Amino acid sequence: MRTRREGRSLRSVERAPRLSIVIPVLNEAPTLAIHLMALQTLRAQGVEVIVVDGGSGDDSMCRAKPLADRVLSSPPGRGVQMNLGAHHASAQALLFLHADTHLPTGAVEQLLHALTTHAWGRFDILLAGHSRWLPIVSKMINQRSRLTGIATGDQGIFVRASTFQAIGGFPEQPLMEDIELTKRLKRISPPACLAAKVISSGRRWDQHGAWKTIRLMWWLRYRYWRGVSATQLAKEYRDAR
Fold it and tell me: What residues does the Glycosyltransferase 2-like domain cover (predicted)?
């Protein structure tokens, strides 16, 4: 006969989510509800959605609360926010999703299958916006990622929770936290590069120009590779914008 404690433990295991999606947010109120509404079907299928607000000046947190399993408050910085979300996650698989990125059909099944053979991975990306160069930029990002094994946050990075904990999570730095994380993950295993495409906002390219943005991002990554601190690069990135 099971004890009451064993019964509670078994029910807890049965309720454990298949996947925890961690979404860092900062002043995303105008579109956040639309993004989270797209995840409600997944929540009904056993996926946990965690929103981590980095000190928004709008009502992002209020809009998120009815549409997420957890809404947490954090100091600003994607690395800090995503580490906090991962700390509170209940699943053995984590997906870090930007607030302006939408998942393709079948994304959860594909990434969970990929995690049976890989410690981590990412999706291909399709940038959505007005610039006619965005399809080309998307292909460049996908090809670069396949060649280098490095992924960016807007590609939807997913990882086994145990692996994420083993490497210490995201570096809590103001820029390039996704690049640094995937560099560390590469030492454990190559990524699962899923051909299914997440759709991410191309607003950065639309606002500042596609090729100007490409040049800036490559220049920043080159300087990071040469050892320039993320703090200095973040300042230069803000000044350039």
Answer: 20-117
Domain ranges, ordered by start, for the chain: 4-202
Which residue's entry shows tokens 């899923």?
194
Ramachandran category for residue 63: left, alpha or beta (phi over 0 → left; psi -120 to 50 → alpha) = alpha
Q: How far apart are CA 171 and CA 163, in angstroms?
A: 14
**Exposed, middle or buried by CB within 10 Å (0-12, 13-18, 19+), for 32?**
buried
Alpha carbon distance, N-terminus to C-terminus of the chain: 65
CB-based contacts of 122, cutoff 8 Å, min separation 6: 145, 151, 155, 156, 157, 158, 182, 191, 192, 193, 194
Please give the model's pTM, rounded to 2 decimal places: 0.90
- Give 114-144 pLDDT, tens digit per residue: 999 999 999 999 999 888 889 999 999 999 9
